[in-house]
TrEMBL record:
Residues 10-331 form the D-isomer specific 2-hydroxyacid dehydrogenase catalytic domain. SUPFAM superfamilies: Formate/glycerate dehydrogenase catalytic domain-like, NAD(P)-binding Rossmann-fold domains. This is D-glycerate dehydrogenase. One of its GO terms (cellular component) is cytosol. Belongs to the D-isomer specific 2-hydroxyacid dehydrogenase family. CDD domains: PTDH (cd12157). Keywords: Oxidoreductase. It comes from the Bacteria. Gene3D superfamilies: NAD(P)-binding Rossmann-like Domain. The keyword Zinc does not apply. GO terms for molecular function: glyoxylate reductase (NADPH) activity; hydroxypyruvate reductase (NADH) activity; NAD binding. It comes from Sediminivirga luteola. Residues 114-299 form the D-isomer specific 2-hydroxyacid dehydrogenase NAD-binding domain.
Length: 345
């Protein structure tokens, strides 16, 4: 009797759009999580024990322990841009492809950064609360600041930082950036932006937008010592990674009035690569409603964008399972040749 080959098993840790389930189900057995909640790590391990492919998201931690419990795994596809929550070396050593989505998140996140900056500068949430609470008409209150003609510093000049700079140009600001890798002279001219060291940027900027990824070098890059040098009353916006900014220092500087306001779409407690990360957002920080503006990691939360991100990750899984190098590969797994096909071991 003819034996039927096993369909590869693909596990999805978070909810995806229906077309993605249909795409993967054409050739794979799909184990999905269509709830709004993250699965406990133990449940992810249980579901992925026989998985050939795994699609992961920002709240997931992929480490050696998880990988060792998935002996059939060939590819981990991240529906994300920053992969600091995934052990790249562990994937590589075990012959597992790791992929991520590089560019699809950039423009939506930059757009949100500008929105957070405007919201903070113009007291939009405080104004909304005022209107909803027995509004009696205009009063001379809630005076804020403007982006027009201001000095804005951008920390991190990768794809995201450059996109933020492009979107801010319409406000005619003086733009500064800090990054260990300088932009080309052509890019600096195109963006009308000038490189500065971090202390100079903080001292001169009316607003600072953090676009830096998380690494060993950028954890608390903006710590208390550095933030104390920020221009009095300046605004700080973080859309990079939460742990690039020391949130405890932000609380102290907001309390002291040195920092004029803080907006964020990312938070320290989200950074699973940090064993010492806080358990959540400080209650004191959350209580500072008139000087803070927070969003729940909405950087890529544009419906059409999310579908493209999921499609990219699903396609990478199918490519890897077919023996090809997947799009967005971060690594070259041990045992895989230059053409993307397994080498003889």
């Amino acid at each position: 009797m003819k034996q039927h080959s096993r369909r590869p098993k693909v596990v999805l840790t978070h909810r995806v759009h229906a077309p993605i389930l249909e795409l993967l189900s054409e050739s794979c057995e799909v184990v999905a999580n269509q709830s709004d909640s993250s699965l406990p790590a133990s449940e992810v391990r249980r579901r992925a024990a026989e998985a050939d492919g795994l699609m992961v998201f920002m709240p997931d931690r992929v480490d050696a322990e998880l990988l060792d419990s998935c002996p059939n795994l060939k590819v981990v596809a991240g529906a994300l841009k920053g992969n600091d929550n995934i052990d790249v070396e562990a994937c590589t050593e075990r012959g597992i492809w790791l992929t991520r989505v590089e560019d699809l998140l950039t423009e939506p996140t930059a757009e949100l950064a500008v929105g957070l900056l405007i919201g903070l500068a113009r007291n939009i949430t405080a104004g909304d609360r005022r209107v909803r609470s027995n509004f009696a008409g205009w009063r001379p209150t809630l005076y804020g600041s403007t982006l027009v003609g201001s000095t804005i510093g951008i920390v991190g000049a990768g794809n995201l930082g450059r996109a933020v700079a492009r979107m801010l140009r319409g406000f005619a600001p003086e733009l500064l950036y800090f990054d260990p890798e300088p932009l080309s002279a052509a890019d600096e001219a195109l963006l009308d932006i000038r490189r500065a060291d971090l202390s100079d940027l903080l001292e001169r900027s009316d607003a600072v937008v953090v676009c830096a990824p998380l690494s060993a070098e950028t954890v608390h890059l903006l710590d208390r010592n550095r933030l104390e040098s920020i221009r009095p009353g300046a605004l700080l916006v973080n859309v990079g990674r939460g742990s690039v900014v020391d949130e405890s220092a932000v609380i102290e500087l907001l309390r002291a009035g040195q920092l004029g306001g803080f907006a964020a779409d990312v938070f320290e407690f989200e950074d699973l690569s940090r064993p010492d990360r806080p358990a959540g957002i400080s209650a004191e920080l959350l209580a500072m409603q008139d000087r803070t503006l927070f969003t729940p990691h909405l950087g890529s939360a544009v419906a059409a964008t999310r579908l493209k991100i999921e499609e990219h990750a699903a396609t990478a899984i199918l490519q890897a399972l077919a023996g090809h190098e997947p799009h967005g590969a971060v690594n070259r797994p041990c045992g895989v040749g230059s053409a993307g096909t397994p080498t003889a071991l």
